[in-house]
Amino acid sequence: MASSPIHCAHTVRNLGVMFDSELSTKSHIIKTASACFFHLRRLRQLRGIVTDAVTKQLVTSLVLSRLDYCNSALFGLPASTLAPLQRVQNVAARLVLRLDHRAHIKPVLQRLHWLPVKARIQFKIATVMHATLNQRVPAYLNNIIKFNTEESGPRHLRSSTTNAAVVMRTRTQFGKRAFSVCGPSIWNYQIPPHIRNPRSVTAFRKALKTYLFSEII
Questions:
Q1: Where are the domains of the chain?
Q2: Listed residue (102, 28, 100, 98) closest to 67, CA to CA
Q3: Dist. CA 165–CA 189, nearest whole Å
Q4: What is the pLDDT of residues 125-154, one digit of tens each?
Q5: pLDDT confidence of 156, banded at 50, 70, 90?
Q6: Checking phi first, is residue 140 left (phi over 0); if not, alpha (psi -120 to 50) or beta?
């Protein structure tokens, strides 16, 4: 009824992602980490009777899939905010390889060929940008992302031969987290031109992952 009061909610769920009133996504991160640790505790009970390969498959399907789901919404968050998700991945990696909790994590992630959480976010956004370049995304993404290709831009521009994207200008921190800004920024400034060249999805993902590993780990 018109006279009924409307109460504001501190958090809301949209497509499985929790948004709080400050758009910090802390509620989503806490909930995701909690669900992942629940599955890790269950898997630890089975660790002694399953092989390393099976454990890795279970961790990938039950834990890493949750870390990767809609993780592009977490771009631009400080490391302290992402820390719970990184702790989840660290525990999962040591569980797969049967290592002590004091084992140094970088060699462990490299052995499993798992990118850290922050790099997984960059990987996801760059993959979507590659799909946008090759027009394999919904129309709304094609409408907000523009590339300086030889067909669409002046041929004398260097960016027209490197598939650089047009970066939207913004003055706010929230604006920098928008895909129309963070996508082109990652594509232009964090990925070398030779990787941005048109290629199959499989080849692009392999080259991108190898590059991110060489830069981060």
A1: 11-114, 121-216
A2: 28
A3: 10
A4: 999 999 999 888 999 888 999 988 645 444
A5: very low
A6: alpha
Q: Which secondary structure element, helix H or strand E, spans residue 12, and what is its range? A: strand 11-14
Q: What is the pLDDT of residue 104?
A: 92
- CB count within 10 Å of CB 65 equals 11
What letter would DSSP give residue 64? I
Angle at 212 between CA 107 and CA 40, to 5 degrees: 50
DSSP string computed for 85-117:
HHHHHHHHHHHHTT--TTS-HHHHHHHHT---H
Query: pLDDT by residue (tens digit) across 39-78?
Result: 999 999 999 999 999 999 999 999 999 999 999 999 999 9
The model's pTM is 0.86
Contact (CB, 8 A) for 122 and 186: yes
CA dihedral of 13, 16, 18, 23, whole degrees rounded to 10:
-100
Integer angstrom CA distances of residue 51 from 43, 47, 98: 12, 8, 11
Tens digits of per-residue pLDDT, 174-209?
Answer: 888 889 999 999 999 999 998 988 778 999 999 999
The pair of structure tokens assigned to 62 is 């039950």
